[in-house]
Prior knowledge:
19% of the residues lie in helices and 38% in strands. It contains three helices and eleven strands, in the order ββαββββββαβαββ. It has helices spanning 27-36, 103-107, 120-132; strands spanning 5-10, 15-24, 44-49, 56-57, 63-68, 74-81, 86-87, 95-99, 116-119, 138-141, 146-149. The longest helix has 13 residues, at 120-132.
Amino acid sequence: MDKRRYCVxxxxxxxxxxxxxxxxxxxxxxxxxxLRRIAPRYDEGHWLSxxxxxxxxxxxxxxxxxxxxxxxxxxxxxxxxxPFRFVSMDKNVASALELPVHTIDSSRTRPGNQLVICxxxxxxxxxRSLQDLEEDDFVELSAFGTIFAH
Length: 150
């Protein structure tokens, strides 16, 4: 199991969903990790790869579930999914995020949102490059409400 931590950012709402999700590719490794932690921390979560044809089982605590396509676009978001329940997935689901309760609501994540998922170091570089852009480098076209660099 990959123990690196990933960040999940929603550019549409300009909010982070998590600063510390771990990738969980194998069923037994996921189960072992879930048994170790009954109550997840507020910044933790799991990124489940290739969940097609599998039903997710929440063992001990409520979680928010976000189902993504291959390009990390949100297909479905389920808030406060109860423990000891099953959920079936759409055939287009390529991965899923298990996150603490209220993450979907507080990040204003909705179906259709495009998420950015990457390692913390890469996210820091992406955000730093955005900060380096000066406000003077942008022109607002008020008729369209769009901002373009010139």
